[in-house]
Amino acid sequence: MQSLQELLVASSRTFAVGIRILPEPLRTEVTVAYLLLRVSDYLEDNREYVLPLREQR
Question: d(Cα 57, Cα 52) in Å, to the nearest integer?
Answer without folding.
Answer: 9
